[in-house]
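Q: Hi! First time doing this. I have a protein sequence and I read that you can turn it into a structure. Is that right? Here it is:
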Amino acid sequence: MNILVFLVPAALILGLLGLAGFLWSLRSGQYDDLEGAAERILFDDDDDKPDEKKNRD
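A: Yes, that's right. Below is the predicted 3D structure, encoded as structure tokens:
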């Protein structure tokens, strides 16, 4: 029963830290562009890759 004296405040502190982290991420704009990352994977970025033929010579 004495362990509850430590576990309850620890749970409350961890919960408040999680809530503070979530609110910080909301305010800093982490959730503004939800579709951008999902659509970005569909496009090829061939310009960024080096040409394989040039490396073989």
